[in-house]
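Researcher: I need the complex structure. Ligand is nicotinamide-adenine-dinucleotide. Inputs:
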Amino acid sequence: MTKAGTCQEALLGKIEDKTAVVGIVGLGYVGLPLAIHFCQAGFKVIGFDLDEEKINMLRAGQSYIRHVPAEPIAVLTAGGQIQPTVDFSQLSKADCVLICVPTPLTEKLEPDLSYLISTTKTVQQYLRAGQLVVLESTTYPGTTDEMLLPMLTAGGLEAGRDFFLAFSPEREDPGNKQFGAGNTPKVVGGITPDCLETACALYNAVTTTVPVSSTRAAELTKLLENTYRSVNIALVNEIKILAHKMGIDLFEVIDAAATKPFGYTPFYPGPGLGGHCIPIDPFYLAWKAKEYDFSARFIHLAGEINVAMPYYVVEKTAGALNQHRKSINGSRILILGIAYKKDIDDDRESPGYAIMDMLMQKGAAVCYNDPWIPVLKPTRKYDFKLKSETLSPEFLAKLDAVIIVTDHSDYDIAQIVKHAKIVVDTRNATAGITAGKEKIVMA
Ligand SMILES: NC(=O)c1ccc[n+]([C@@H]2O[C@H](COP(=O)([O-])OP(=O)(O)OC[C@H]3O[C@@H](n4cnc5c(N)ncnc54)[C@H](O)[C@@H]3O)[C@@H](O)[C@H]2O)c1
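Model: Output:
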């Protein structure tokens, strides 16, 4: 029950009649689609990012994410419903502040909360009574109540009375055409019951919500989802290696198993994990577990297996070249697809990079093609300085091997197999190809 005349009552009223201004901090793969979604639901959005290039592109009505179309951005920025800015003093104008900044790992696989800490400091600087602050970035249980809460209350405002603090994990699946922000339920945990109620009111205006008892429960929900994926992918990756030794097609087996109407969810093997979530998030949990004198063994084992997959791909490539009396050293090898999954332009933590690096270290001349990623920008670990090659029949014929790392829908796999000498397939992209089958090696 809200008390008449309180900050909460005022804020709930604004949310209900959609006059609440939503501030979104961090306009990346998560924040940008979220900003568009809130705008389309009728809210005015102020979008904050440190990256001026992104802000300038949004102001010009352009998108910097391939699967996020420019059209709604152009309409919404021209109409003033979304206001992109690098001016963080505008945070005081936002009634609800949603934080979507990166939460990567350090080199030692420990949580790197530097983005979150600096964002929280900025939010605290402009925090005023009557605001809702929600953390959406993926993180370990305890971040919201142990870290954000003391920082945000340092100026004297009380959470649950003066302002409202919650955690609601982002479940965006980039490029997923079936499920987006409008039909994916939001799990929400609040610091107090009023914080939970206020955050649920906001998200209920744009989707359905799943309230849980605490911010920690909401934080662990996200990590459970992604750890479940990491462990199951590791399981099929391990069974893939065994199936290869046994001469069994694991993809056929997975499809057969998936006909069971209960108790089985298909996961597919691949060249290793990529993206900003699955390779990273479980380590947030494993790190926090140490505080409880607990070793998260499944997480470590899954990490070990998944990290080993690029080595397996290189080993299979070496074996395939050997059949042709060739070595990796001196071979021309094409990486087909560098995005971490099909039909998106996100190459973060792509296993393709680890494969490229290993091949180069062994003396191969490595090139790549990815219609979604025309040039390779430097990453934290690599700087390849390569441009995507054009896949002409002549070019393919000059290569010693092609490794399918990402099976983008645009690829004409039959043509690639036709012109290449060896095709190492990590994705079952060559399923159904009969002509040139002898050139295909599964990895
Ligand atoms: N990408 C996904 O599929 C996905 C899905 C679910 C959850 N998440 C989580 O969401 C969070 C954001 O991920 P993302 O993929 O959108 O990252 P991203 O790198 O695409 O975007 C983050 C944005 O935040 C900006 N930024 C960094 N520091 C900032 C600061 N102090 N103030 C304002 N802006 C700042 C960056 O310039 C960037 O534009 C992470 O915690 C991630 O784990 C990501």
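Model: Summary of the prediction. The domain at 239-442 is CATH 3.40.50.720 (Rossmann fold).
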